[in-house]
Design a protein that fits this description.
Layout: E1 15-20, H1 27-37, H2 40-43, E2 46-49, E3 55-56, E4 72-73, E5 76-77, E6 84-85, H3 87-101, E7 106-110, H4 112-125, E8 138-142, H5 150-156, E9 164-170, H6 176-183, E10 190-194, H7 205-248
Parallel strand pairs: 1-2, 1-7, 7-8, 8-9, 9-10
Antiparallel strand pairs: 3-4, 5-6
Length: 254
């Protein structure tokens, strides 16, 4: 069925996000946290992929007795969270996931996964990560923070980061202040406050409305970009056709 202006009507696109779970949990655990707590109005706008981290848990998980194993982690770190192990392997693993399961519009992360998600747009812009996949357009940060290593932070948080972002900050979360500090690295971050601690929150009415507006704006922008690309393609085809007729000496149909 045609639409106004002869354009082809397309079903509304969903935002495809790679979801990075918390430390010593799993993709399946994060899937349960998101799909059981978030409103259907939000979930229907998202196409979410929940992989496991690359490394099996090297110690006790804080969710033992709440969620079943196995548990995974994305990388390892010291007590001060200033030194990291297996970071290169982690970044290569995420890129491979994005190549195999993409293309993705962006990332969603919780806790350790949120720290990674918040750092990746900056690292990508510097050519230090995700060089084989499209530019990250959006990040959803739940209980996030910055990396503390200066050698990593100087590349991960170039000011400002031009990537759409929405940040969930819990009043009782031990990462609340680090999460607030992270906001200054992003252009026009959308912030959702909730009264809980270090957890994936449910929505109150205000948070739900802000999140829906954020997602709808991204979807509308994506639709406009797609239509513009389609118009450009048609113009290129028309120009090529006219050029071919001119070279052949056959009059082009009017």
């Amino acid at each position: 069925m045609g639409s106004e202006g002869g354009m082809i009507a397309q079903p509304q696109k969903k935002l495809r996000l790679l979801c990075l779970h918390g430390f010593r949990t799993s993709g399946e655990i994060m899937k349960k946290q998101i799909t059981q707590k978030w409103a259907p109005q939000v979930l229907e706008k998202l196409d979410l992929i929940f992989p496991d981290g690359p490394f099996a848990s090297r110690g006790r998980s804080e969710v033992e007795g709440i969620f079943d194993p196995p548990y995974y982690e994305w990388f390892q770190f010291n007590k001060e969270f200033s030194e990291y192990e297996n970071m290169e392997e982690c970044l290569a693993y995420i890129e491979e996931l994005m190549i195999k399961n993409g293309p993705f519009d962006g990332l969603m992360g919780f806790s350790q996964g949120a720290i990674l998600s918040a750092a990746l747009p900056g690292l990508q812009s510097k050519g230090l990560a995700l060089t084989k996949v499209p530019k990250i357009k959006v990040v959803v940060i739940i209980s996030g923070a910055k990396f503390r290593s200066q050698s990593l932070a100087q590349h991960a948080y170039p000011s400002p980061i031009h990537c759409s972002s929405i940040h969930f900050l819990g009043d009782q979360d031990f990462l609340k202040n680090p999460g607030i500090e992270l906001l200054s690295s992003y252009v026009d971050p959308v912030v959702i406050h909730h009264p809980r601690g270090h957890t994936v929150p449910r929505f109150d009415e205000n948070g739900l409305n802000k999140t829906l507006r954020f997602l709808q704006t991204l979807l509308e922008d994506a639709a406009e970009d797609k239509q513009e690309g389609y118009r450009t393609l048609l113009e290129d085809i028309e120009e090529d056709t006219q050029e071919a007729y001119l070279k052949s000496g056959i009059p082009a149909a009017s």
